[in-house]
Structures are given as C-alpha cells and as structure tokens.
Amino acid sequence: MAKSNLEFFRSAVEKDPNNTFARYSLAMEYRKAGDFMNALETFREIINRDPAYIAAYLMAAQTAVDADDEDTAEDILRAGIEMATTQNNTHAASEMQDLLDSIS
To answer: Does the domain at residues 5-103 carry the CATH identifier 1.25.40.10?
Structure first.
C-alpha cells in the first residue's frame, strides 16, 4: 500500500530533521487535513530552525487564523514582516501586512 503524503513527509522529516522543505510540506499536509494544532507547531519549528524561511510565517499565521487564534497570528505576522523586510522581500512583507490588517 502506498504511503499517504502525511506519512511520506513525516518519514522524510524523521530521516532528515534539517530538511526545511520536507518539514514545510508536512505542515501543509497537517493544515490540509484540518489538523491546525500540529500544522502550527510544525510551522513554528520551521521558524525556529530556519527563521529566514519566509513562507512559513504567512502559512503559520493563516493556520492560526483558521484555528481562531488571531493573537498568535498577529505575533507571527509581525515577526514575519520584520524578517521579510530584512531580506528586502517586499512582496512577502506586503502579503503578511495585508493579512495583519484584515485581522487587527
């Protein structure tokens, strides 16, 4: 029997905990399954391990919003905007600012 995407990415992260893309994919699979708690935890692990991985901030914040935790989303977005600005990633900073404005 073929592995589910969730099982596949769990296994990939276990084999290589430093594989940010595999961890991001795992978080996205949790989110897709409606498992917002594990998704948010996994996005936070990415942010802690690789703070420059900008996509994790927006998706973590969106997941927090989906879980009705707007305070957490706001904190994540502020940190993400700061990191994106540091990287001169105006597009990502703008997307996060738009989400922050929509929930503030």
So the answer is: yes
